[in-house]
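Running co-folding for PBG.
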Amino acid sequence: MLYKRHRRLRKNTAIRELVRETTISSKDFIYPIFVIEGENIKKEIPTIPGNYHVSVDRLHEILEEVIDCGVNGVMFFGLPEHKDECGSSAFDKDGIIQKAVRKAKELYPELWVITDVCMCEYTDHGHCGILHGHEVDNDKTLEFLGKIALSHVEAGADMVAPSDMMDGRVAYIRDVLDSNGFKDVSIMAYSAKYSSAFYGPFREAANSAPKFGDRKSYQMDPANINEAMREIESDIEEGADIIMVKPALSYLDVVRWARDRYDYPVAAYSVSGEFAMVKAAASFGFINEKAIALEMLLSMKRAGADIIITYYALEASRWLREDLNINHK
Ligand code: PBG
């Protein structure tokens, strides 16, 4: 009987590497960094082990590692001193993000510095926008997002990443940036951002959980994929340069659809809960952390992501380098 011998191409490492369809490298990663007000702080985040709350005066310690690992991009999240109803420290020119961006660009002009544009870390109620009663007021929020994005870009950000899920925010931000002379600054839109329980560890880390209710009236229902395509389409029409799917691991089908339907770069955000699950299981010795983490990241690339935002960016880059050294001995 004639049958196909697929195993011929799996015989040894050499042939397996020759026919490999997907690769990952440090160049695929963006590293999220949590910057905090205060001095001399570099404190491990309990829910995101191996990641830190860092003050601007010690930011260079993290950035040195980023550069050393060959990672090209960072994304900043801020923990402000002061929160209020309208998140005013988010657009303060001496706010935490603005200071971090200035420092990063001063130290490493070539590093690609992205800022998360959202309000939940800055509002005292923890929602991603301006409230009207208990509802987030979409159009009012746009004005604030515009101010926040502009202040990040004035501080030197290369790219802004709106993660609020308000309608029209990409168009609004694009317009504000263009009319202030920042036509060349790009937008990575959190286009398909789901209302996900996988954000739990981040909300602990960023102190950004909503004080009442949930985010279901602006973040997407995990059950929907057609809706994700509509969100992506709007963001592209409005001027997004890169589209994002978030979370990643449980949404690889969404990544694949985005890749197949749109010829724009696709970013996948492997969120805090995905990371924390692996760390926790590894700490019990239930899994091989390195193998699992690299397999997860590879699966995101295979699903079609061009960019992966991951808390594993540094560790994974070191593991990949380690493997390369072993292979070339
Ligand atoms: C801000 C924001 C969140 C995350 C990224 N930007 C939290 C949220 O939407 O509740 C989550 C990232 C993660 O879990 O790693 N809105």
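Result summary
The longest helix spans residues 138-155.
The mean pLDDT is 97.
Job closed.
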